[in-house]
Write a structure and sequence with these properties.
Layout lengths: L7 E7 L2 E8 L6 E5 L13 H4 L4 E5 L16 H15 L4 E6 L1 H12 L4 E7 L10 H5 L5 H7 L3 H7 L2 H10 L6 H10 L3 H22 L12 E6 L16 E4 L5 H4 L1 H12 L9
Parallel strand pairs: 3-4, 3-5, 5-6, 6-7, 7-8
Antiparallel strand pairs: 1-2, 2-4
Length: 285
């Protein structure tokens, strides 16, 4: 890509964690932090970049343990992911930013925006459950969808990620091939094959199973959101049931699968402009 959509790469020391950061857009434009989910990297935003980079400074880190960011073997949970993003903003000298996230990056975005409205002006989440879900019978009927998390949390993750086409098949099948190329699929799969990335996946999904147990017990939720928020959710998601997002103020169900960022970047960019346009970057009083 050329012009305002050109992407540059560098490593940043974010509170002692070496974070790989992809950037696009004018350095003096409003900053937007874009957080990927599993099984992807910052590359998931490749189609969104040309749609937003002309008038936004796009900051696309690889999350702890994934892509080209350091994999320390600890902190593989959304609370630590959120803390990493605050450290990254500090390292970049950014007081307040807009925020968008998909999947694990989306759940992290909810936590970050709820707990730090002084640092986050507005938030867009794509295909992630929100942390204010309360247990109810219907959710128990959807528990079968978590089978993949059980497989990834334990030793089976290694063979699945190194020796099978699980990642490529999951993304291609969910998107019906829309928005992804064979090169994209191989890039995402290859990023998860090194042993330290397999270990990161196992630890992340063990955290996921603990979170499911906490939701079932009716554990404490983060404070309510006090910044503009929008939840864009592809209703064909095979992993996350719509029961986990129904009732969230501002939820928008669209004709897409889980990987809505790849499949429908036009919808993502439109939603981002809408929610970010409702918030000033100046800190709230």
């Amino acid at each position: 890509m050329t012009g305002p959509a050109a992407v540059t790469h560098r490593d940043v020391d974010a509170g002692g964690l070496r974070v790989h950061l992809a950037e696009a857009g004018p350095p003096d434009a409003p900053p937007v932090l874009l957080l990927h989910g599993w099984p992807q990297t910052h590359r998931c935003w490749r189609h969104v970049v040309p749609l937003l980079a002309a008038d936004h400074r796009l900051l696309m880190p690889d999350l702890r343990g994934f892509g080209r960011t350091e994999a320390p073997g600890t902190g593989m949970d959304p609370e630590t992911f959120a803390a990493d993003q605050l450290a990254l903003l500090d390292a970049l000298g950014i007081e307040r930013a807009h925020l968008a996230g998909h999947d694990w990056g989306g759940y992290t975005s909810f936590l970050l925006a709820a707990r730090h409205p002084d640092r986050i002006a507005a938030v867009l989440v794509c295909n992630a459950p929100h942390p204010w879900v309360r247990p109810r019978p219907r959710l128990l009927l959807e528990a079968w969808r978590a089978w993949y998390a059980v497989a990834l949390a334990f030793p089976l993750a290694g063979p699945l990620l190194r020796r099978t086409g699980l990642v490529a098949r999951a993304i291609a099948g969910d998107t019906r091939g829309r928005g992804v190329t064979p090169e994209d699929l191989e890039a995402f799969a290859a990023a998860l094959r090194p042993p330290e990335r397999v270990r990161a996946t196992q630890l992340l999904y063990r955290a996921y199973l603990r979170r499911l147990a906490a939701v079932a017990r009716g554990g404490p939720a983060p404070p309510p959101l006090r910044v503009p928020a929008h939840l864009l959710f592809g209703r064909r998601d095979r992993a996350i049931p719509t029961a986990l997002v129904e009732g969230f103020p501002g939820v928008e169900l669209v004709d897409a699968g889980h990987f809505v960022v790849d499949e429908r970047p036009d919808l993502v960019a439109r939603a981002a402009r809408d929610v970010f346009g409702r918030a000033a970057l100046s800190a709230p009083a």
